[in-house]
Amino acid sequence: MNNSTTGLAQRVPESLELRRELRARLERFLAGSKLLPPLPLSRLRVLMGEFLTATGVDAAYGNWCMIFINNILWRDVIRRIPVQKRLLLLPFCLRHATRCEASYDEFGLICADCGRCRIAELRERADALGLVTLVAESSSRVAEWVASGEIQAVIGVSCLASLERAFPSMLRNAVPGIAIPLNRDGCKDTDFDDELLSEALTLSEVEGWELPSYDEVKAQVEALFAAERVTRAMLFDHHRAQVFAQEARLVLSGHGKHYRPMLTIMTYLALAETTVVPPWLEQVALAVECFHKASLVHDDIEDNDDYRYGEPTVHVRQSVGVAINLGDYLQGEGYRLLSSDPVPEKLRGQFAAIAAVGHCELALGQAQELEWREGVQNMDMVLDTFRLKTAPAFRVALAMGALAAGRLEGLEDCFQKLSEAMGIAYQLQDDIDDQEDDPASAVFVYAHEKQVELADARRALQELVDTLREEAYAALENVSSQPLKSLLFRMISKILPPANLPALPIHGAIPTQPQDNAP
User: Fold this and answer.
1) Which of 125, 255, 343, 450 has the highest CB neighbour count under 10 A?
2) Model pLDDT, residue 515
3) For the chain, give me the number of helices (H) and strands (E)?
4) Are residues 182 and 152 in the same domain?
């Protein structure tokens, strides 16, 4: 969010009466919309613009209105989050500037309960309701809590300028939150609307659900691909080809972010609204990674790549024959895992069918690339190849997770659009980041086609990545499961992180001492 969206200096509505009136108008504006959070910043800006146009409200209040649109959308979600997993985040500027007796640690202010400001009273109110309280301008600790699942919602009091800086990052991480702007900036003689804080703190807990924790699932997936777990699950150690077995373990457990098996497991958890991963789903997740790594081994041969993850590829370490055989083996293992106990028998054929379609598309994409490599390439060819080569693996991972939860119907179109946008953008970003001279790279193809310098080609393709990221977010518009929408929103931001946004849900690192001008 920035002031350029309106062309005016942004400000908080000056009177309590005006703020109440605008909040009531926003409630009426959103009534019946059936919008599920999170919404991307671009969509929130559109809603803000529609509200300003429809009501004639001063555009200088635009950012304030956008914050409250987001607050209203998250309110019902926060009701379903246990109170003890909600955090009250207060700013330093509420302290008494000259007579504060508090000390500080790396996380924030440690209140001395001296009674000279409202912090102790606010903390006591939150404590009595079961919320955690933190007094800080910003904190990496909040990011850790959110990622681990210890904290699942944030109620934050801050000046409008700080909220504007933090807002994009909070959205990027799909953190349920209610922001309460201070009524005056400058960290001096400021206050906030107490009725808003009371409403946020006392949101009743209803129909609580289990939300998957990103850190917990990530740790579970990493453990799943530990060498000893892989060895137990696969067949390669049952035979005498020891070098081959070592290579297979290395390919599956040695490197990679494991995005695809994470998508499978997290989609299941979100749709089933549980934190429990059944053992057979781990077997499905292993199969998803087998298929992906098989495609990489074969792709390295076909593209004559000597390195992957900074290390020699399988066909360089061993031989082309070994690499071809290893890729074939991983494909076979994937289908074996999907079609054997303990995977439910009624799902085995459906899992295999989803994987087979993805395999065919991937092979066709590689065929196109091989046929076009020696001819004149253009960007349409490159993007179509990326669509076939990269998108199916994401779609297969998502579809298997939804099928496992018994809720795939109605999500196929979303998964198709999301996977295409995310897959093409992911491959483009890889080419943009690659500094090697590769004539088959999208950067070189674009530069040749448009007759521009490589630096200009990279900038143009980065704009395309940004557009595709927005298309990926837009694909989630009609997802009816709020946990799934939050999960996929978060995964888009992790797989395609915006270059100009901080990585933490709350901006920056905490200062060890407060600002001198705090009241």
Assistant:
1) 343
2) 36
3) 21, 8
4) yes
β-pairing, 103-104 vs 109-110, is antiparallel
Structure tokens, 394: 């994401």
The residue with tokens 């295999």 is 352
Q: Tell me, what CATH number does 292's domain have? A: 1.10.600.10
Q: Which SS3 state, helix, strand or coil, does residue 157 take?
A: strand
pLDDT of the residue at 97: 58
β strands within 162-306, DSSP E: 177-181
The predicted model gives 160-171 an average pLDDT of: 77
pLDDT for position 96: 58
Residue 91, token pair as written in the block? 């700013």
Which of 467, 476, 445 has its CA nearest to residue 458? 445
Domain shared by 216 and 195, yes or no: no
pLDDT score recorded for residue 88: 92
> Could you tell me the residue range of the domain that residue 23 belongs to?
3-201
Domain count, the chain: 2
Domain end among 150, 171, 201: 201
Rg (CA), the chain: 26
Whose CA is closest to 211, among 490, 505, 507, 486? 486
Mean pLDDT of 4-20: 80
Looking at the structure, tell me whether residues 185 and 225 fall in a common domain. no
Decide: 66 and 171 in contact? Cβ < 8 Å: no
pLDDT surpassing 50 at residue 6: no
Residue 94's closest CA among 457, 434, 478, 514?
514
* 74 lies in the same domain as 179: yes
Among residues of the chain, what percentage have pLDDT more than 70? 87
- The answer to whether residues 39 and 162 belong to one domain is yes
Question: Which residue in 83, 84, 81, 54 sits closest to 69, CA to CA?
Answer: 54
The backbone torsions φ and ψ at residue 89, rounded to the nearest 5 degrees and listed phi first, read: -110, 115
Closest CA to 287 of 222, 242, 230, 366: 230
Q: What is the pLDDT of residue 516?
A: 35
Q: Give pLDDT, residue 310.
A: 80
pLDDT band at 111 (very low <50, low <70, confident <90, very high): low
Q: 62 CB contacts (<8 Å, ≥6 apart)?
A: 5, 6, 8, 10, 48, 49, 52
**The tokens 């400000």 sit on which residue?**
11
